[in-house]
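User: Can you help me understand a structure? I only have the sequence.
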Amino acid sequence: MQTWTGDQPLPQDEVKSDGDRECPEAYEECCRTAHIWTGILRDKLKHGAVIGPADVALCMCGVQLARECDTSSPQTRAHLSSWLTRLDAVWHHEFKD
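Assistant: Let's start by predicting it. Here is the structure, written out as tokens:
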């Protein structure tokens, strides 16, 4: 594994985000997580509101951004890239024509 210094793109073996935009696993994973989060946060949500799969992916991108701000690392950037790919897959699934 290469050492990443921050002044060049991530080495390809560190990037795990070359996902399929029609990846049903990403959508299903975000759906399951959305149900869990909706249950946990039900008393804080407006009546009838639910957390959707895209909300999960967006929130996880936010978590990774917060981690990157706190402690910069190639692993955190790879995780962020992975969650952005999942977000793209979820949006593709929800809004495909």
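Now, to help you interpret it: The CA atoms of residues 24 and 93 lie 8 Å apart. The radius of gyration is 15 Å. Let me know which part you'd like to focus on.
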